[in-house]
Amino acid sequence: xxxxxxxxxxxxxxxxxxxxxxxxxxxxxxxxxxxxxxxxxxxxxxxxxxxxxxxxxxxxxxxxxxxxxxxxxxxxxxxxxxxxxxxxxxxxxxxxxxxxxxxxxxxxxxxxxxxxxxxxxxxxxxxxxxxxxxxxxxxxxxxxxxxxxxx
Length: 151
Known about the structure:
The protein is mainly α. It has seven helices and no strands. The protein has helices spanning 13-19, 30-36, 50-60, 66-79, 85-97, 110-122, 141-148. Helix 4 packs parallel to helix 6.
C-alpha cells in the first residue's frame, strides 16, 4: 500500500491506470472488503470494486497516502445517493477501530474523508461507484473530470 504514481491531466484513463501501482485485490484485508466491496453482503453505500476505485484515485488526482484513501472513500460514499449520516458514522468507526494497519485511519484523516464526502455530493454525475469506466478508457482524465463536474 501507499505507492505513488505520476500522471498528467491529458493522459487517457487506460494509460493512467497502467501507470498505477496500487495494491492487488487479494492484498486488501477482509474487513476492508467487507465494508467496501460490492460482493459483500455488508457493504456500505459507495461500495466499489478495485478497478473503479483506482479510476477515482486518478480522476480525483489522489495518491495512496491514508489522507488520499480517506478522501477517495469519502468521495465515493458522498457520491452515492443512498449514503446517509449513519453510514458515514459506521464507516468512520470501523476505519478507526477495526481496519488493520496500514489501512487504519486515525482522527487526523477524518477531515480528508469529510472533504471527499462534500465533493462527492457536489459532483454533477452521481453514483460513480456503478459507472462502467472501461467505456471511458480512451478519454483524457481532464475531460472526464469536467464531465463529472470536479474539474
